[in-house]
Design a protein that fits this description.
The protein is α/β, with parallel strands linked by helices. Helix content is about 35%, strand content about 25%. The strands form two sheets. Strands 6-7-8-3-9-10 form a six-stranded mixed β-sheet, with helices on both faces. Strands 2-1-4-5 form a four-stranded antiparallel β-sheet, covered by helices on one side. The C terminus is likely disordered. It binds adenosine-5'-triphosphate and magnesium ion.
Length: about 250
């Protein structure tokens, strides 16, 4: 990937004029994006600006009003969420979603469910490596409610990456974490990037986004209000007005 410029490659994901309306609420209202491989993308925006809804639409868990998604040249707009996982897109959720009556190891293995038989076996064989990388191997037999919030987040991360996605969508991966936990998650993201996992992150922590992302988008009222390099986006007057000026640093 290093030898070609973005203009010469095909986008990994193309988002074409996507809208998600809930009755009169235009949660996402005409978003277009091109995500190129080998980058970490971030989305900033105030509470209720449509970030999670966009992620829901991208993974086809949320019904769309209009628009299309094309991943590696394939239009998946009408496909099911499981198929999309199989295609190479994984996600984590804004709130922890783990099965409370299953062990950490079993929860991670759930991330292989959508895969075909052979790839599933290969993925399952990676469970120890993935747990080690995320520093959760010592708690593999514990259940989620016995773990700290930060550790539960790591388990979700592990579940998302075990299928070796080419695109990883993260909805507030460090919310509720302390500074050192945030830095660790940020380091894991950079490491995943080196392994070829393009990432698309929704976060409120502006500093972390500036430090971690290669390219930023800013949303307000379901629309994009800015995009570009992280420093340019956070300095953009529309972004300052919508987000940074009032309630900067506030969390959902
Ligand atoms: N299932 C739904 N039904 C109706 N309205 C919804 C639904 N999901 C989201 N909304 C509305 O759509 C808008 C966007 O919500 P969304 O959760 O996408 O925002 P967000 O940017 O992720 O906010 P936050 O930063 O608080 O997580 C909000 O007005 C929300 O109330
Ligand atoms: Mg959200």
């Amino acid at each position: 990937m290093a030898e070609t410029t973005p203009d010469q490659e095909a986008p990994l994901l193309e988002v074409r004029d996507v809208a998600v309306h809930f009755g009169g609420v235009k949660a996402v209202d005409g978003i277009s994006m091109k995500l190129w491989p080998g980058r970490i993308y971030g989305v900033l925006g105030p509470n209720g600006s449509g970030k999670s809804t966009l992620l829901g639409a991208m993974t086809r868990l949320t019904p769309m009003t209009r628009g299309a998604f094309v991943f590696e040249g394939q239009d998946y707009t009408k496909k099911h969420a499981r198929t999309i996982q199989h295609m190479g897109i994984a996600r984590t959720f804004q709130t922890v979603r783990l099965l409370e009556d299953r062990t950490v190891r079993d929860n991670i293995l759930l991330g292989t469910d959508s895969l075909g038989r052979e790839t599933r076996k290969e993925a399952a064989a990676r469970v120890d490596e993935v747990m080690e990388r995320l520093g959760i191997q010592e708690v593999e037999r514990m259940r989620p409610d016995e773990l700290s919030y930060g550790m539960q987040r790591r388990v979700e991360f592990a579940r998302a990456i075990i299928s070796r996605p080419r695109l990883l969508l993260l909805d507030e991966p460090t919310a509720g974490m302390n500074t050192s936990e945030r830095e660790e998650i940020s380091a894991i993201m950079r490491q995943l990037l080196e392994e070829g996992v393009t990432q698309f992150i929704v976060e409120h922590d502006v500093q972390m986004m500036v430090d971690t992302c290669d390219y930023l988008y800013a949303m307000n009222f379901g629309k994009l209000i800015a995009e570009g390099t992280p420093t340019d986006v956070v300095r953009d007057p529309a972004v300052q007005e919508a987000y940074l000026g009032k309630g900067a640093g506030k969390h959902a």
